[in-house]
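Can't paste images in this forum, so I'm doing it all in text. The chain is below; anyone willing to post the predicted structure tokens underneath?
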Amino acid sequence: NAPDPEWGTENVDGKEIKLENVTFSYDGKRDVLKNVDMTFPEKGMTAIVGESGCGKSTVVNILVGAFRPQKGDVTVGGKQLEKLSRENWYSHLSAVSYNTYIFNESVRDNFKMAKESVTDEEIYAALEKVNLKEFIEENGGLDKVITEDANNISGGQKQRLALAIALVSDKDIYVFDEATSNIDIDSEAVIMKNIKAISESKSVIVISHRLA
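Text version of the structure:
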């Protein structure tokens, strides 16, 4: 396993993210990314679309700071990502993937981990945005405890819950990595409409194997 990347102590200023001339390899032999340039604006939606294995998730891992490229620069608001404080960077960022972890706690407590001051009204509003409000209301409400590994909800419901929690967190930058892969078409349409609304004032990065 690769060692944990080192971090600095600086705080995030601007929110525009840039990958400049980035090259990354897992084994030092085959480049998954080679001389890649990408710009993700402070506001608006950017989609990265491609088939499995083309390097989309590698880009996500570099964006969130889990991996460091062997070559090139990753900057946030003009600052090198590795010079930022990890805690400060994560306070601006929300990443939702196809297998985001849901805690073995009540629905309400899962939301409170993202935003301690969240109200029940805000939670239900977020659940409505992902087509999950009715299901939660009819199955124990906000006191419903999500079991270990989220075995008492479906894969699609787990993804929708993770998305609702992200919406409540009110971060500056959202990364959705195949975040709607298990979700039915009708729910996905509702969710994408709400994600597009967020992108009017936030930076939204959507990674998918197909254009929605």
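The longest strand covers residues 31-40. The chain has two domains: 17-94, 97-208.
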